[in-house]
Specification:
It is elongated, with a radius of gyration of 36 Å. It has about 260 residues and is an alpha/beta fold. It has helices at about 5-60, 90-105, 130-145, 175-190, 205-210, 225-230, 235-250; strands at about 65-70, 110, 145-155, 165-170, 200, 215-220. The protein contains seven helices and six strands. The chain has a six-stranded mixed β-sheet with strand order 2-1-3-6-4-5, with helices on both faces. It starts with a helix and ends with a helix.
Length: about 260
């Protein structure tokens, strides 16, 4: 036997085996390194996305609520005249301005359809009342608030009728919910003997033509002497505004 040849062949096979094993180890190391890099890349991307997701959620939770307050009438349309000679539009505006301030104090965004004795019509509009109502609805729909509250005063042929009442569009589930809440707060804040309930309506233009939850708050009867006297007083207007504010906050789930 050629021992030298045998020994040389054996040595060569050992070298080949070592080379193959070394190559296998190197390949394994490359795979492990690649997997580690992919894992680090995943952790990096995930860590970058987490604050973004959190911020989006926080932003949604902290999104400011918005209310549109619509003081009924104004300008050439003074609304009803009380038995004491006061114009409805002025009482509506006074209550609405007080309500605006109270809502802002709660951190709620407020948009007014008017802040002075003016209407939302142009001097060249042939039918100023129709133009005014269309402009109000357009403004409200552009704002797209969480709720719209239109402030009015009621009037009736019989002097004995009285009591605040809130109206909502009959096909609006959220409108009904808001109206019931505001009605309860008006009763608690103004007259606990008031047995009036929130009432559905299919005719009020503004309720039909706005897209958001909407109510009309008739705060009292100008045809009733006692309520007409109260509604012209600053102190009572504050009470009305507070009751409406409390009701809106409950509807919006704001403490």
């Amino acid at each position: 036997m050629n021992w030298k040849g045998f020994a040389k062949g054996l040595a060569d096979r050992q070298k080949d085996n070592m080379a193959q094993e070394s190559g296998s180890n190197n390949a394994r190391k490359y795979i492990e390194l690649a997997m580690a890099m992919l894992l680090l890349l995943f952790v990096y991307i995930f860590s970058r996305r987490m604050p973004t997701l959190g911020t989006a959620a926080d932003s949604k939770e902290e999104k400011q609520k918005t209310v549109v307050i619509d003081p009924g009438h104004g300008g050439i349309d003074g609304g009803a005249i009380s038995v004491l000679g006061d114009e409805e539009q002025e009482i509506n505006l006074n209550i609405s301005l007080k309500l605006r301030d109270k809502l802002k104090d709660k951190g709620i965004g407020v948009v007014m359809t008017r802040e002075t004795d003016t209407g939302l019509y142009g001097e060249n509009d042939r039918n100023k009342k129709v133009a005014d109502m269309k402009a109000r609805c357009s403004l409200i729909n552009d704002v797209n608030p969480d709720i719209m509250v239109s402030v009015h005063q009621n009037n009736y042929s019989s002097e004995g009728v009285k009591g605040a009442q809130v109206f909502y569009y009959s096909h609006s589930v959220e409108g009904e919910k808001a109206a019931v809440i505001l009605q309860n707060h008006l009763r608690e804040g103004l007259d606990r003997n008031n047995e009036r309930k929130a009432k559905k309506n299919d005719n009020y233009y503004i309720l039909i033509n706005v897209k958001c939850p909407a109510v009309i708050a008739e705060c009292g009867f100008l045809s009733n002497y006692s309520e007409a006297e109260l509604l012209k007083s600053d102190e009572y207007q504050e009470k009305v505004a507070q009751a409406l504010c409390d009701g809106i906050c409950e509807y919006l789930e704001i403490e």
